[in-house]
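Q: Given only this backbone (390 positions), what sequence would you predict?
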């Protein structure tokens, strides 16, 4: 196994890296001070310096790079903000959204009114969409003008306080509609952000409760997962169609933890809780499960209060390709009195069997992950780390 650290001076201009994205064979990195396209493991093809923000997240399509960001009051920006001991009581001091072209030229940036955490953006033909903890926000792609701020959450009282600490889910733009998962509510809007359908439960099933994953497009299905409350009540994975009239299938996933991540290669959808991974086929059949993934670091779900679960970070720490599933965690050591090391765990996507465990050097936790060919790219506290998978 070959390990290469990508701590190049060419990307230091963008500050602490908080998000990476592979698109059309190119690697893009977002940091607290800007965005870069990396032309090699140690060099940036271009960088753009932007107004500093604690956490910056990106999405890429064939035409542009959209970004969102937020800052916490009273947090030391000289360190990677994601690694701070943030606790449950946070004050968001600033939120923003912007867009640049694929050559790194800035197009626009706007400051948002929201004082909640916001999600990574989604890019439509003429819009950008993002979720705050309690709102879906739709912006014009042309100039960032706010087109709509629609409530995606109906909770009140103490629940509202917990929701303000949640990690908002990235919306899905599909078939001229926007799908979003807020607390206890699956919502569909048109491209202007006007609600056209919503659901808090399917048929005679119990309410969704906390929806912990972004909606995932799996062929023509919309897949999402939840956090169930109560003793011995399992979290679930749900599937519905574009009309959202009923569930196509539902599976009981894990009694110990909420569903924290979903990913697909088009043939299999993988659901991951803190302790359990399952693979599902197109009909919703549970084709395998694996409980050897180890404890999560920044992956998975954290709990606010007794049973309210939210993803630990915005980072993508579950990837799937045609052969393997990749995730991060702590595998329990076989020897006694030894410390579990942070690692990347590789699972066979067809069988669910453990293929390989790669320890992350220096016992650091991964913040974000992308797979590019046989390379596993990890955002770690000091930059980007490249691991050779096989």
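A: Predicted residues:
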């Amino acid at each position: 196994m070959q390990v290469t650290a990508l701590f190049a001076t060419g990307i230091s201009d963008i500050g602490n890296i908080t998000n990476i994205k592979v698109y059309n064979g190119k690697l893009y990195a977002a940091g607290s001070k800007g965005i870069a396209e990396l032309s090699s493991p140690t060099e940036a093809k271009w960088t753009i310096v932007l107004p500093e923000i604690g956490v910056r997240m990106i999405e890429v399509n064939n035409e542009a790079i959209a970004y969102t960001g937020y800052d916490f009051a009273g947090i030391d920006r000289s360190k990677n903000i994601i690694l701070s001991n943030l606790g449950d009581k946070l004050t968001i001091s600033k939120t923003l959204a912007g867009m640049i072209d694929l050559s790194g030229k800035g197009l626009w940036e706007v400051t948002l009114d929201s004082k909640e955490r916001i999600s990574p953006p989604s890019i439509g033909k003429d819009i950008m969409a993002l979720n705050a903890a309690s709102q879906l926000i739709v912006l014009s792609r042309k100039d960032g003008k706010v087109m709509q701020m629609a409530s995606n959450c109906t909770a009140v009282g103490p629940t509202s306080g917990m929701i303000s600490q949640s990690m908002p889910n990235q919306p899905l733009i599909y078939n001229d509609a926007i799908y979003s998962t807020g607390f206890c509510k699956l919502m569909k809007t048109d491209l202007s952000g006007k609600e056209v359908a919503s659901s808090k439960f399917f048929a005679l099933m119990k309410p969704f409760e906390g929806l912990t994953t972004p909606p995932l497009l799996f062929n023509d299905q919309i897949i999402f997962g939840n956090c169930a409350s109560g003793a011995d009540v399992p979290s679930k994975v749900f599937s519905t169609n574009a009309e959202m009239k009923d569930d196509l299938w539902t599976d009981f996933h894990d009694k110990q933890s909420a569903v924290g991540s979903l990913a697909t290669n088009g043939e299999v959808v993988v659901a991951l809780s803190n302790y359990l991974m399952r693979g599902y086929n197109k009909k919703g059949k549970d084709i395998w499960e694996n409980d050897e993934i180890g404890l999560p670091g920044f992956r998975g779900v954290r709990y606010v209060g007794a049973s309210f679960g939210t993803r630990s970070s915005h980072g993508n720490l579950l990837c799937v390709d045609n052969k393997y599933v990749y995730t991060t965690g702590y595998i329990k050591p076989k020897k006694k009195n030894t410390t579990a090391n942070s690692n990347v765990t590789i699972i066979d996507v067809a069988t669910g069997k453990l293929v390989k465990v790669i320890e992350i050097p220096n016992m650091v936790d991964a913040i974000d992950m992308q797979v590019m060919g046989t390379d596993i790219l990890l955002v770690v506290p000091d930059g980007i780390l490249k691991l050779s998978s096989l």
